[in-house]
Design brief:
The chain contains 13 helices and 21 strands. Helix 1 runs parallel beside helix 13. The longest helix has 21 residues.
């Protein structure tokens, strides 16, 4: 992280143990109670550790509670099998290595895929229910309480040629968005343990003794209190999408869309990352971010074609919306349109509407301010190949590969208009497969763990819906277990 005079971006220097009077001593301190921190606290407490969990806001939940609730799990979970799908850890790993790359941490990914079935069982054992029903509307959580769906473009090019397409989006049994329900289930599981939960508690500094993290100094009820951690401190305090200076320094493209659609709570200000940097932790991929552009549901709108400011296609329209959104924002500068016809068009879930209509591509291009000859050539080429059942340019697949009929229309998806470009950060502290924070040399920072968006995501540059909650709960649980063992 660059040195700067901005106090909201600099590493937060630790207190020294010799200068602190600890008021309390426990085995594990968890900072943040979203899905990752709650999983860490549950796992540590289940392992017999004494735990204090500190939540900066007035209630637990964080960004996890605002989410759709999807968890990306696979390898042959009971839910996949009950819905009639066969999967393996190897198949899951092949897909994720491609979809989340480039630059995926192979060791962490292997652990995640190998133990995904066990993690599903852990969630179920801790009160998270899943209904054995497949939802055939991909990429967004089901409107009913169906538990399984495609959530990362597994069944579209190029990923359907890399791994056998299998749905891995696991949604807890709840109508529509289930993030709040997931956190209610995990919160109840935490409540059944002996872990102590303190809300409205902001961690001001970590405490270090030599090179080991020994605890935290937190502001609670208007005063500072120091808590010693025998086993370790788990940082699970969110990402940095709401820290203007950090985003501006590392991934400024993420701030181009409407601020309303920056996904996170005000506490996603990078504080957890900065605490880790202050004790020698290394940051990874702070430039990486996700950008979802919800063209659907319904996914049937993928029968249209996406064109850029030059009137040309740039991606297969049936792929994952996060892949479309990132390419649209970063590579096309957020200047794109969806071209449909009367047979294809229908209102989508977030209210996108046709704004222009014309009989021909040339006439439509004049309305959109696109090069008329170029758009006409794009539509003609697409129609010619679609009529033959192929798409040599971008490999869109049936049933979405259909010619555009006479009478065309356009939906405005430009970033400076009404389209939703939903962004959040993926970079954070470098960690190993046990969620231990690493320094710049790759050595472990003793006594410090990170999970959720405080840690660098498994999603290195690509994304699949459900990875944030899957990755967060998985490595949060591992962090809690390892810290509990370290205390012993």
């Amino acid at each position: 992280m660059p040195r700067t005079n901005d106090e909201t971006i600099r590493p937060i220097e630790p207190a020294r143990a010799s200068e602190v009077a600890f008021e309390r001593e426990v085995d594990v301190v968890v900072v943040g109670l979203g899905a990752a921190g709650t999983s860490a606290a549950i796992a540590a407490a289940d392992a017999g550790a004494s735990v204090v969990a500190l939540e900066r806001q007035s209630a637990a939940g964080g960004t996890s509670a605002m989410s759709g609730g999807l968890l990306y799990l696979g390898g042959g979970t009971p839910l996949q099998e009950a819905c009639g799908f066969r999967d393996s850890p190897e198949n899951m790993e092949r897909f994720l290595a491609a979809a989340l790359g480039p630059g995926v941490d192979a060791e962490r990914l292997h652990a995640y895929c190998t133990e995904s079935v066990a993690h599903f069982r852990w969630l179920a054992d801790h009160g998270v229910p899943f209904r054995a029903a497949f939802c055939d509307e991909p990429n967004r959580e089901s409107e009913d309480d169906s538990g399984l769906l495609f959530s990362g473009g597994e069944d579209s090019h190029p990923f359907d040629e890399i791994a056998e397409p299998v749905p891995r989006g696991h949604k807890p049994q709840f109508i529509d968005s289930s993030g709040g329900f997931l956190m209610k289930c995990l919160g109840s599981a935490l409540g059944r343990t002996a872990a102590a939960v303190v809300v409205d508690a902001r961690v001001e500094r970590l405490v270090q003794e030599g090179d080991r993290v020994r605890g935290v100094v937190a502001r609670v009820d208007g005063r500072e209190a120091a808590i010693r951690a025998r086993g370790g401190v788990v940082l699970a305090a969110g990402g940095f999408i709401h820290n203007e200076a950090m985003v501006g320094a590392h991934c400024p493209e993420a701030h181009r869309p409407d601020p309303v659609w920056r996904i996170g709570t005000p506490a996603d200000d990078g504080r957890g990352i900065r605490l880790g940097l202050g004790v020698g932790g290394a940051a990874m991929r702070l430039e990486a971010f996700e950008c979802a552009l919800p063209i659907g549901p319904p996914h049937r709108l993928a029968r249209g074609i996406l064109v850029n400011g030059a009137g040309e296609r740039f991606i297969n329209e049936d792929t994952y919306p996060g892949r479309i959104g990132w390419h649209a924002l970063v590579e096309q500068r957020g200047q794109i349109f969806l071209i449909v016809d009367e047979e294809i068009y229908e209102p989508n879930l977030v209210g996108l509407r046709v704004e222009w209509a014309a009989e021909t591509a040339v006439e439509l291009a004049a309305d959109l301010g696109l090069p008329p000859e170029r758009l006409a050539a794009t539509v003609a080429r697409y129609n010619e190949h679609a009529a033959r059942g192929g798409d040599p340019d971008f490999h869109k697949r049936p049933p979405y590969l259909v010619p555009l009929g006479p009478g065309l229309a356009a939906i405005d998806l430009r970033v400076d208009r009404r389209a939703i470009y939903a962004t959040f950060t993926l970079g954070g502290l470098a960690t190993d497969p046990h969620a231990r924070v690493l320094d710049r040399s790759g050595a472990v920072v003793p006594g410090l763990y990170a999970a959720g968006r405080t840690a660098a995501s498994l999603a290195a540059h690509g994304y699949a819906s459900g990875i944030s909650l899957g990755d967060g709960t998985f490595f949060g649980r591992r962090a809690g277990l390892h810290a509990a063992a370290a205390a012993r």
